[in-house]
UniProtKB/TrEMBL annotation:
Protein name in UniProt: Small ribosomal subunit protein uS9
Pfam families: Ribosomal_S9
Keyword set includes Glycosyltransferase: yes
GO BP: translation
Signal peptide: none
HAMAP family, A to Z: Ribosomal_uS9_B (MF_00532_B)
Keywords recorded for this protein, A-Z: Glycosyltransferase, Ribonucleoprotein, Ribosomal protein, Transferase
Sample GO molecular function, one term: glycosyltransferase activity
Domain of life: Bacteria
Disordered as annotated region, ranges: 1-30
Record gene name: rpsI
A GO CC term attached to the entry: cytosolic small ribosomal subunit
Record flagged with keyword Transferase: yes
Length: 193
């Protein structure tokens, strides 16, 4: 009698396994729904056309009526408005020549980095107005603006500038002073006795 109950117990298990739908059908249903949704999102209606459309859409240059591209660059407290156009490599910062405004060679080198990276030295004129911060922050802001303006003028330069890190805004700023401390982190002198 005990054997009969075991056999009865085993029978339903075997029957449920045989009657249960196979797992590939259950798994393929969500995939089919996902593919149908993906196909509905694309204009072509097929899943294979989606990546090709995203890659195939080239960015249009953003050039104004005077043949310039405009971008804003920022670094620390400095903010720069930069216009870039085809020319002879002339750079004006706040109406003054770059060698006068940024007298230190290191700052001039910072401004030249985007052009050297994309091998366009001497091909563009730059006009920039910059305010706020110190000279180092202003040079970084102008460099950021030049890089962004170059990508607007010639979208094919974006991968090289992105790889060089010129399009990323440097978010480091001065940390605020905290109350109960001498500076942001420095404590007042401590005397135990």
């Amino acid at each position: 009698m005990a054997q009969e109950t075991q056999n009865e117990d085993e029978k339903p298990v075997a029957e449920t396994v045989a009657e249960a739908p196979s797992t590939p059908e259950v798994t393929s249903a969500p995939e089919a729904v996902g593919m149908a949704a993906l196909g509905a999102l694309t204009e072509g209606g097929t899943a294979d056309a989606a990546p090709a459309e995203v890659v195939a859409a080239p960015a249009e240059p953003k050039i104004d009526s005077l043949g310039r591209s405009y971008a804003t660059g920022r670094r620390k407290d400095a903010s720069a408005r930069v216009w870039v156009k085809r020319g002879t490599g002339q750079v004006k910062i706040n109406g003054r020549d770059v060698s006068v405004y940024f007298a230190r060679p290191v700052l001039q080198m910072i401004l030249a980095q985007p052009f050297e990276t994309v091998e366009r030295v001497g091909e563009f004129d730059v006009f920039a107005t910059v305010k706020g911060g110190g000279l180092s922050g202003q040079a970084g802001a102008v460099r950021h603006g030049i890089s962004r303006a170059l990508t607007y003028f010639e979208p094919g330069l974006r991968p090289a500038l992105k790889a060089g890190g010129f399009l990323t805004r440097d978010s480091r700023v001065v940390e605020r002073k905290k109350y109960g401390r001498a500076k942001a982190r420095k404590s007042f002198q401590f005397s135990k006795r």
